[in-house]
Structures are given as structure tokens and as C-alpha cells.
């Protein structure tokens, strides 16, 4: 066997094709070449990865552990090539083999181990942690099936299992030796003053490690995902007795734990298997953290100096009681000391205030799986009550275990994800706890990684920026402000506008190829991509489209600004209202796109199977970003940041991070509409608020009437009775009440877009002033305010 070539990438690809994949170049498929390139790239990460691990041990540095049920990673090959700054080299090597570089990158399956914003944030954070040289581990679940694949049948969402692990994953290293046995159920034994849990069922968690390399390849961290494995995979006795299925039962059961990602976001279903998943990955992670600490230290009291654990929402909340259990029951520390140590390590990020999303478990179910943890939660509650006798706020009570309260009580710091959201945490769900623990709640406004979300996804814009101010912005995004003086230069602004034109043309080609629809490239590309939810109000958007269609038909010669409305996003399979919204958009699109009277002036397309890769395609081509949630409901949003950075203007409410985006880009460069949080609260108190709003706005009344009368569902006129009933009745999310102002703002968009030059100026100002929304800035905030962690690369 020839030696593995270290420097020449083409030779390395050929080597891996032969010796890793066992393929003759004459018979190699795209998949084989992609795997060969991935292995060659991975080789260039591994040395740095090991150096980083060694440096961390040597410096005895504090490590950050990010516990998250979800990591919505997307594709990794390009990310890794970009961060190693090998793009030109990789393209040249692939092209010299007669292959198409982009096609090869696109062959990689999208790792969809998350639902939406929360999971994607975790992925951006992993990249920024590595970029900043902060020693960190991500811990999660290696789901065999990520988020379902979405397709449409007659406009209705269909779900099919996602299969990313059908093909071998080039990035992960299986660690059969890194396994922990975890228990469930069983009994609690108290003997000679010590209490021990004797579980009844056992599963093993096996580690799979993926290196995460930062920008310029200076540092790499580990994403460690746990897979479920049976303790005794195979029962030979039962097999020999002829019971073949039962012989493999253990194995099947254990593997079920990490089989599939729960597709509900922002709702809480209280499922037994979900609690098993939460305990499975939290407990395996906590054991791994303790094991690593104990290789270098004996004194457990040092733990908070060496370990910072971040709980991404309440899904890993059981990590708190588990750590207390290991320190107290298993290591013998006094309970109060164990509790103090655990609290010194743990922190909690809240991502939603929606009551239906706050996790809680029935005590019977909880006790059947985790009896000892329930006892410990009661002791944690008692200790808290003793320290704060005036008011009793508890995690366990009224027959339920509330994970928000548990996370808060167990945490050193609790954070919200945008300024408005953090403020609301203090006055609503966590009001009492905030009074008891002033200063514990802090804000860390979300951010996104500029490597993926500008540099890679928008190569034309990246090249223009680098040509203008150098490439320092990629690692220091606030440098984008240096673009501002160039915006007044007409030639520069024309180049900026040309980037968008070219990106739009590219999207048009793709849509024509994949969906057989010709989009008008002159139109405003108006994009709403995110999970489908009533609070995000995709139905407000489609209502406006219907009203616009009706108005154009009435008055076709009124000089309309052409528009293409683009939708993307999945609905939780059991969320029927959201699925109705999807169907309504598809039905309306079919009717409107076929109407010769409005042809070229209004087009609507709902792209199926929205995912990270599709976001990377759409965001660079967008003119207008729809961020239209009911005020107070969207904790932050991160798509809003990606759009602004890529030179789209936002139409949005004063919600989540929209508020901070508007402050930074300037209110004259943002299309604001809608009620504030306080106004929305007051409006809900008005009797028949929806009916009142509809009566006051004939456009809205007519659009709703068209839906009601079956204009978009002639074969089933009452198909949307549910949506119509909600809009004209309770309308908790205030679609009707915000409609008129939304319409007004949309017409301002039309007018503004007609002045091409000024639009480009506003778009460029959005890009130039959004550098603060880098996840590097966010992670620096966590390091300083929450973790007390430092960079080992001087970043
Ligand atoms: O988290 C989202 C919020 O809705 C966004 O406003 C915010 O920007 C991001 C990141 O902070 N929340 C989620 O994405 N929530 C979930 O995905 C989720 C998943 C499972 C269970 C409950 C919620």
C-alpha cells in the first residue's frame, strides 16, 4: 500500500478512493468521490483536533459543555473546506478529476438532527466555539432518522422518514470503548443511611464523535452524539429455543431510544420515550463530563471551576438531578454540597414563553422511569424553600414535574435569547423566581455564523465584501461597517445590486429545473421560511397575497410592483391547523399562478422540504424577509439575522431580535408594522376584536370571504372552515387586527422597491450594519457572562 499523501489533495483523494472506499476510479460514482474528498479533508482536521484536545489538558482549562437535544447541522463538507481555507485547492482537485465541484458538495445528505431555530443555533454555536478557540464539547443524540422529509400531495403535507445514515457518515468516529450503561425504573434502597437507586432496565449509550473545526482551522472541538445500544444485544438461549424475534428484543428496544427526532417544536407532548431520550443523553453526557474531570482532579469541589454546562432549553434539565445523584449517592458528598457544586456548573437557556411549549411531566410517569430523581427533585425543592421561606416556587407540585422551574433553580445563570424576550422572562413565566434571584437572568442575543450564512452561501457577496474591505470580516463580522462609506459610491452600489440580481437569476434557474415554474426575476422576492406555526403567522402573509391578487384584478393598470412570494417550512405532523395553512397556501398558489389577469405581477410558490441547504439557497436571493410573528411570541429569530446580513430588507413586528435588528440597521431601513407586546395584550381584551378588525377593513373582509366561499378549494368549499372560524372568532394571534397595518407596510415596500437605487442602498445598509449578529459575538457573551471560560487561541 502506498503511503497516504499528506500534501497533494488530488493524490489524497485517489488514495482514499482506493484504500478507504475500495473503489477503482473507473467505477467510482459521485458518492465514492464525495466520500474520498471528505476523508481527505477530515485528515486535515484530525491533527489540529488532537492538538486542541492536548492543549486543553495541558492548560487544565475550563471546558464548556453544550447539552442539546438538537443540532441542526446541515452539510459539513463545504463548511470544513471553507474553514480550512481549502476551497480553491478542493475545487481544482475535483475538477482535475473531471467532476463538478458543486454537484459533489450537494451530494452530501443534510444532517437534520433538529427542528428549527433551537437546533440551528446549537450548530452555529459549535462553529463559533471552535472559531474562538474555546475548549468545548457539544452533547446530543445521534438520531438515526432526523426531521421527516416533506412533500405535497394535492397541496397537503406528506411526511416520509429521513434517512441520512443510509449512507456512511464520513465525519464521525465511532467510539465503541466510550460507553455508559444507564438505568430506568426499578427501586430505591436505603441502607445504613445511604440511598441507592437500583434500576430495572438498562441501555447503553455509545459515543460517536465529529470534529468541529473553526474559521482558519486554528482550533477544533468535539460534537459527541450518543447512540442507544443494548447491554445484552442477543439472547442466545431464546434464539436456540426458536424464539428468533425475542432473541433480538433487547437490541431493538435500546436502539429505539436514538431512532428518531421528535418533530414537535413549540409544543409539548409528554411522551414516555421522549423523557427516556432526555435522560439517556443527559445522563451519558454528565457521566462523561465527570469521568474527564476525574482524570485530572480528585477534589470534586473544583468542578465549577473546570466545568460549565449549558442546557439548551429544558430538554436536558434532568442533568441537574443526575449530577446531584452522582455526587451525593455515588460519590458520597453531603447533599447540600452536591447541590451547590451542581448549581455552580449548570446554566439554562430559555427559547420560548409559549405556555404549550413549557415542558412538564406527570409525576407517575416520571417516577416510573426515574424514581430516585423525583426524590432528589423534592430535596432540591426543599432546600430552595428553606433558603427562600417567604415564597414557595417548586419544580414538583400539583402532580407534575416542571422542567422550567427545575432548570432555573438548578442554574447559576439563566438566559433569554433577545433583549425583549429576556425582559418578558422576568415579568411573565419566571417573575417569582426572578424576584427571588435578581441578577440570575441575563440576556444573550442570538447570532449566526458568518462563515456559513454569508461567506459560503453567498459567494458573490462575499467576494464583493472582501474586494472592498479585505477578508477580515469573516472572522470579525463587525468590520462590515467599513462598507458604509462605499454605499454612496454609485459604482459600488451597482455592484452590490448586481450580486442580488445574479443570486435571484440563479434561484430562478433552480426553481425552473426542480419545480417547473418560471419566476419573474424582476419581481420582489418576498420570502418566509421557518416552521409553520400560528404565532409566526404564515396565514397573515397568504391573506395579504390573496387581498393583493384581488386588488390587482380590480385594477390591473395601477402600476403594481411585481412580487414573488416564496414559502418554505414544515408543520409538526400532529399540528392540524398548521397543516391547513400549508394547504391553503398551496391552493391559493395554484389558483393565483394560473390567473392570466395577474400573470407576472403576483406569483406564489411553496417549496417542499425546507432545510438548511434550501435556506442557503434562498436567503442570498431574497429581497424581503418576512418576520411577522405576533409581538411577544417569537423569542428571537435567527433567520431574520441571516436575511439582513445578505442584504434583504425586513418587514416585521416589534418582536424578538427584530427589535435589535431595527435599532442597528436604522428604522428608515426596516418596514415596521403591527402592535407592540402591550398593545397586543390590550387588544385581546377587546370583545370581538377580530370581527371589529374585519368590519373595518374591506380588503381583509373580501380575502377571508374568498377563502370561506371556496375560491381556492372549489371541489370542497368548506375546506378552510377551521382557519376562517379562527380568524373571525378567537384569533388569539391577532392576524385580523394586524392585517391593515401589514397591508400598509407592504405597499410601502412596493413603493420603495420601485426606486431601485434607493432600495439597493437600504439593502446594503442592512448588510453593513448587521455584523453584531455574528454568533462569535454571542459566544463571547456566554464566555464572559455565563461560563467564565477563556480562549486558548487568544481570540
Ligand atoms: O429558538 C426557537 C425560537 O422559536 C426562536 O425564536 C429562536 O430564535 C430559536 C433560537 O433561540 N425555538 C425553537 O426552535 N424551539 C424548538 O425547536 C423546540 C424543539 C423541541 C421542543 C420544543 C421547542
Automatic annotation (TrEMBL):
Under which main EC class is this enzyme filed? transferase
Q: What is its main location?
A: cytoplasm
Q: Does Glycosyltransferase show up as a keyword for this record? A: yes
Q: Which Gene3D superfamilies match?
A: Glycogen Phosphorylase B
What PROSITE patterns does the database record attribute to this sequence? Answer: PHOSPHORYLASE
| N6-(pyridoxal phosphate)lysine found at | 642
Cellular component (GO) terms are: cytoplasm
Report the locations given in the UniProt record: Cytoplasm
What EC numbers are recorded for this enzyme?
2.4.1.1
* Gene Ontology BP annotations: glycogen catabolic process
Please give the cofactor(s) recorded in the UniProt entry for this protein.
pyridoxal 5'-phosphate
The UniProt keywords, alphabetically, are: Allosteric enzyme, Carbohydrate metabolism, Cytoplasm, Glycosyltransferase, Pyridoxal phosphate, Transferase
Entries under InterPro entries matching the protein: Glycg_phsphrylas, Glyco_trans_35, Pyridoxal_P_attach_site
Instruction: Drop me one GO molecular function for this one.
Output: glycogen phosphorylase activity
Does this entry carry the keyword Glycosyltransferase? yes
- Reaction catalysis annotation: [(1->4)-alpha-D-glucosyl](n) + phosphate = [(1->4)-alpha-D-glucosyl](n-1) + alpha-D-glucose 1-phosphate
This protein's source sits in the domain of life called Bacteria
Tell me the NCBIfam families matching this sequence.
P_ylase
Q: What does this protein do?
A: Phosphorylase is an important allosteric enzyme in carbohydrate metabolism. Enzymes from different sources differ in their regulatory mechanisms and in their natural substrates. However, all known phosphorylases share catalytic and structural properties. Allosteric enzyme that catalyzes the rate-limiting step in glycogen catabolism, the phosphorolytic cleavage of glycogen to produce glucose-1-phosphate, and plays a central role in maintaining cellular and organismal glucose homeostasis.
Q: Which family does it belong to?
A: Belongs to the glycogen phosphorylase family.
What is the name of the protein in this document?
A: Alpha-1,4 glucan phosphorylase
Q: Organism source for this protein?
A: Paracoccus halophilus
Amino acid at each position: 500500500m502506498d503511503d497516504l499523501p499528506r500534501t497533494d489533495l488530488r493524490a489524497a483523494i485517489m488514495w482514499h478512493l482506493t484504500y478507504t472506499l475500495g473503489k477503482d476510479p473507473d467505477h467510482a460514482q459521485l458518492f465514492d468521490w464525495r466520500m474520498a474528498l471528505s476523508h481527505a479533508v477530515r485528515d486535515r482536521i484530525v491533527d489540529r483536533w488532537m492538538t486542541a484536545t492536548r492543549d486543553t489538558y495541558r492548560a487544565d482549562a475550563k471546558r464548556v459543555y453544550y447539552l442539546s437535544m438538537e443540532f441542526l447541522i446541515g452539510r459539513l463538507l463545504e463548511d470544513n473546506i471553507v474553514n480550512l481555507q481549502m476551497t480553491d485547492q478542493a475545487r481544482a482537485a475535483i475538477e482535475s478529476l473531471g467532476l463538478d465541484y458543486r454537484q459533489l458538495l450537494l451530494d452530501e445528505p443534510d444532517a437534520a438532527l433538529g427542528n428549527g431555530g433551537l437546533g440551528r443555533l446549537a450548530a452555529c454555536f459549535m462553529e463559533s466555539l471552535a472559531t474562538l478557540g474555546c475548549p468545548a464539547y457539544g452533547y446530543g443524540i445521534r438520531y438515526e432518522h432526523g426531521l421527516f422529509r416533506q412533500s405535497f400531495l394535492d397541496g397537503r403535507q406528506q411526511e416520509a422518514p429521513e434517512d441520512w445514515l443510509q449512507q456512511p457518515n464520513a465525519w464521525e468516529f465511532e467510539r465503541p470503548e466510550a460507553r455508559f450503561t444507564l438505568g430506568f425504573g426499578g427501586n430505591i434502597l436505603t441502607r445504613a443511611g445511604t440511598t441507592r437507586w437500583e434500576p430495572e432496565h438498562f441501555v447503553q449509550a455509545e459515543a460517536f464523535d465529529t470534529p468541529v473545526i473553526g474559521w482558519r482551522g486554528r482550533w477544533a472541538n468535539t460534537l459527541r452524539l450518543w447512540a442507544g445500544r443494548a447491554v445484552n444485544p442477543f439472547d442466545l438461549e431464546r434464539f436456540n429455543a426458536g424464539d428468533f424475534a425475542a432473541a433480538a428484543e433487547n437490541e431493538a428496544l435500546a436502539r429505539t431510544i436514538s431512532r428518531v427526532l421528535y418533530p414537535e417544536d413549540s409544543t409539548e407532548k409528554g411522551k414516555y420515550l421522549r423523557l427516556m431520550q432526555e435522560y439517556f443523553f443527559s445522563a451519558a453526557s454528565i457521566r462523561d463530563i465527570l469521568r474527564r474531570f476525574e482524570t485530572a482532579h480528585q477534589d470534586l469541589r473544583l468542578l465549577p471551576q473546570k466545568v460549565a454546562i449549558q442546557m439548551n432549553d429544558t430538554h436536558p434539565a434532568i442533568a441537574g438531578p443526575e449530577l446531584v445523584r452522582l455526587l451525593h449517592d455515588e460519590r458520597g458528598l453531603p447533599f447540600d454540597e452536591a447541590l451547590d457544586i451542581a448549581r455552580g456548573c449548570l446554566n439554562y437557556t430559555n427559547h420560548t414563553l409559549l405556555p404549550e411549549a413549557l415542558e412538564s411531566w406527570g409525576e407517575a410517569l416520571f417516577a416510573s422511569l426515574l424514581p430516585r430523581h423525583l426524590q432528589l427533585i423534592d430535596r432540591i425543592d426543599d432546600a430552595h424553600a428553606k433558603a427562600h421561606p417567604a415564597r414557595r416556587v417548586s419544580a414538583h407540585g400539583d402532580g407534575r414535574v416542571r422542567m422550567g422551574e427545575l432548570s432555573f433553580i438548578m442554574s447559576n445563570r439563566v438566559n433569554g435569547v433577545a433583549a425583549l424576550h429576556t425582559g418578558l422572562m422576568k415579568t411573565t413565566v419566571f417573575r417569582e423566581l426572578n424576584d427571588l434571584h435578581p441578577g440570575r437572568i441575563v440576556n444573550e442575543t442570538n447570532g449566526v455564523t458568518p462563515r456559513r450564512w454569508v461567506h459560503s452561501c453567498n459567494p458573490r457577496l462575499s467576494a464583493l465584501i472582501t474586494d472592498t474591505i479585505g477578508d477580515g470580516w469573516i472572522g470579525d463580522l463587525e468590520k462590515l461597517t467599513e462598507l458604509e462609506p462605499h454605499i454612496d459610491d454609485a459604482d459600488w452600489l451597482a455592484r452590490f445590486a448586481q450580486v442580488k440580481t445574479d443570486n435571484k437569476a440563479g434561484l430562478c434557474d433552480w426553481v425552473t429545473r426542480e419545480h417547473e415554474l418560471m419566476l419573474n426575476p424582476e419581481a420582489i422576492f418576498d420570502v418566509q421560511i421557518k416552521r409553520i406555526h400560528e404565532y409566526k403567522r404564515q396565514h397573515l402573509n397568504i391573506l395579504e397575497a390573496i387581498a393583493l391578487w384581488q386588488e390587482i384584478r380590480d385594477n390591473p393598470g395601477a402600476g403594481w410592483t411585481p412580487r414573488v412570494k416564496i414559502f418554505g417550512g414544515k408543520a409538526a405532523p400532529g399540528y392540524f391547523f398548521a397543516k391547513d395553512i400549508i394547504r391553503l397556501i398551496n391552493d391559493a398558489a395554484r389558483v393565483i399562478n394560473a390567473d392570466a389577469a395577474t400573470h407576472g405581477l403576483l406569483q406564489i410558490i411553496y417549496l417542499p422540504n425546507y432545510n438548511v441547504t434550501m435556506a442557503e439557497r434562498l436567503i442570498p436571493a431574497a429581497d424581503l424577509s418576512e418576520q411577522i410573528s405576533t409581538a411577544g411570541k417569537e423569542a428571537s429569530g435567527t433567520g431574520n439575522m441571516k436575511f439582513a446580513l445578505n442584504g434583504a430588507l425586513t418587514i416585521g413586528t416589534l418582536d424578538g431580535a427584530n427589535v435589535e435588528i431595527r435599532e442597528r440597521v436604522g428604522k428608515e431601513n426596516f418596514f415596521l408594522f403591527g402592535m407592540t407586546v402591550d398593545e397586543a395584550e390590550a387588544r385581546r381584551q377587546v370583545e370581538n376584536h377580530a370581527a371589529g378588525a374585519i368590519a373595518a377593513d374591506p380588503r381583509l373582509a373580501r380575502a377571508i370571504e374568498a377563502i370561506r366561499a371556496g375560491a381556492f378549494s372549489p371541489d370542497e368549499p368548506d375546506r378552510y372552515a377551521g382557519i376562517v372560524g379562527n380568524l373571525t372568532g378567537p384569533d388569539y394571534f391577532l392576524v385580523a387586527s394586524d392585517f391593515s397595518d401589514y397591508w400598509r407596510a407592504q405597499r410601502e415596500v412596493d413603493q420603495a422597491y420601485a426606486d431601485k437605487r434607493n432600495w439597493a442602498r437600504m439593502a446594503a445598509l442592512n448588510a453593513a450594519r448587521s455584523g453584531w449578529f455574528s454568533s462569535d459575538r454571542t459566544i463571547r457573551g456566554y464566555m464572559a457572562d455565563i461560563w467564565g471560560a477563556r480562549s486558548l487561541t487568544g481570540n
